[in-house]
Description:
The complex is a heterodimer of chains A (246) and B (416).
Chain A: E1 24-37, E2 40-53, E3 57-61, H1 68-75, E4 83-88, E5 91-92, H2 98-108, E6 109-112, H3 124-133, H4 139-152, H5 168-180, E7 186-190, H6 198-215, E8 218-222, E9 234-239, E10 242-245
Parallel strand pairs in A: 3-8, 3-9, 6-7, 7-8
Antiparallel strand pairs in A: 1-2, 1-4, 4-5, 9-10
Helix pairs in contact in A: 3-4, 3-5, 4-5
Chain B: H1 4-11, H2 13-44, H3 46-50, E1 55-59, E2 71-72, H4 73-80, E3 85-91, E4 95-99, E5 105-113, E6 125-128, E7 138-142, E8 157-160, E9 163-171, E10 181-186, H5 187-197, E11 198-206, E12 212-220, E13 241-242, E14 244-249, H6 255-265, E15 269-272, H7 274-287, H8 291-320, H9 322-331, H10 335-372, H11 380-397, H12 399-406
Parallel strand pairs in B: 5-10, 7-9
Antiparallel strand pairs in B: 1-14, 1-15, 2-13, 3-14, 4-5, 4-8, 6-9, 7-10, 8-9, 11-12
Amino acid sequence: MTLLNVPPTRNATPARLNCPEDCRTIVARDIGMSYKLGDRRVPVLRDIDLSVRSGNVKLLMGPSGSGKTTLLSILAGLLSPTQGRVELLGENITALSKAQLSRFRLENIGFIFQGFNLFPALTALENVELALDLRGIRGKEARDRAQAMLEQVGLGDKASNQPRDLSGGQKQRVAIARALVARPKIVMADEPTAALDSHSGHAVMELLRKLAKEEGVTVLMVTHDPRIVDIADSIIHLEDGIIQGS
Amino acid sequence: MASLARKNLLEDIPRFLVAQAGIMFAVVLVTVQLGIYRGFLKSTALIVDEAEADLWVSSEDMVYFELTPSLAAENLFEIQGLDGVELAEPLLLPSAQWHSQSGQLSTMKVIGFDPDGELFQPWNIIEGNPEQLDEPFSILIDRTNLRPLDIGGVGEVADINSIPSTVVGLTEGTQSIASSAFAFTSLESALAYSTTAFSTSLSCQSDADGNLSCDRVARRVPQENWADNRQEARTLQASDTVTHVLVRIENSANLEEVRAAIESAIPGARALTGEQVAERTRLYWRDRTGIGFTLGMGAALGVVVGVVIVSQILYSSVSDHIKEFGTLKAMGASDWTLYGVVIEQAMWMAVTGYAPGTALCWFIAQWTASSMGIVVLITPLSSVAVFGITLAMCVGSAFFAIQKVTRVDPAIVFKA
């Protein structure tokens, strides 16, 4: 399986990152989140403190409605918490403007979604190239890098296929290639194995773990999937918006 | 990288074709309305534009080229004698009645000119022999007037103010949309048509000091007497009237000086350049009729229809791809990157709707010109202007789609 034999593409030195606070890439302090319902506020997250070290794979687990996805959205800078602060790579992202946050995500975070979120009108290669295009990398360089990334995830021969012509596992691998092609320092994944069979799910997890260990990428992942627990460095259990254990 | 905007647009071909049909309709409506408007205005002053005169001498009370009091023919001879004038030729524009052989009655504007002159000649003669205009009561008419005048073609005869007249040739693209049918004929024939319907005389009085003052009096001859009053073609005399005097100045002469000399020599006359007469004519038709407003409304309606259609298509396209926009936002794309996608889509729609729309307009213009003589004036400049309007229309239509994109919550990406 190609995924399990991915050669490192660059200097595999985890220490290359500028490690803030003892290489803690993700730090959340006293995060709280609530929604207004009528004239009262419904808490979704309470007193969340967590940190993830660079090169680690951390799982966010818990039952449906426990606040996992909301917490992931806050840590990714897609949602603003009603209290607390989030530091990514030493930057307090809760203090950034919307435009600054977009820029920060573009430069530092790769996303993998449960529903793949590929662009159906684009080919697999174009989907991967898009992540580079957003960063201003275009033309032959972008094409070559996107093709190389597709080959790394075992889809070199599917570059010209559109998402509708790919299986679920192949779509997720394209999504992973898109998340990684711009070499982000953090990868945030929401149920990346939920739509995959056991074999594909395991392959995807191996790929993410390899990336974390060899390239120092920090991986934070929301999952229900008990099959991948053994691949994680640490696990956070969330229930009713509160961390129950890690 | 392939354009996401273009690929999204082409992903749903039926919807794309509906959008293109809407934009095509808008382009055709705007182009044709503007073309008719501009063609109409141009056609009203075609005679002026085609004349080779440096100056047109007309009554100072001229409203526009066809609606003007006459000048005394003696003024023609006076102008010919002025310094700086190389050539002066009369132009007669009497109105007349046309009776076809089957008895159909039409109004007509006779254009009387010197067939051997240099300052005005009919143009675009497509059939017949213009030299036969030297024969009395020979006329040229525009091809598109054959049916309205109930006449078959060259060689056929009809009555103009009760005078049997022969069609000796046909022209093309010479008719004003706003005027009665033109009949080009010699000065002598035009004079006869004119004096059959009107008799002119000089009425002179002497005052107490013995000074003589004369007025020219024109009286309409009752139509039942036209046959009895039928005139022979004859040369212009000082006691006749002309509508305009066309003037060519000498190469060495100064236009303003000649103009001043003419106006000074002939009280009650104005000397204007051809451009000024044409402009006055076009302004008359634009401002004193509802044509500008009516056609402008049609063009505006085309733009409104285009905006509604493009807005609706873009909005539904954005709605269908809202999760993709959310994904782009989550990945860190700036708002302007997202606006760029929507605006690029709008621009593709503009381009792909404009091209076939304009091609259709060219066909429509050819057809109306050849079958009805109605000029739908489409020039490279007007085509560029309509393209600009189409682009502005489509990009402006992206407003609501952009509003929707702006409000996309990037957190929707985590909803499966």
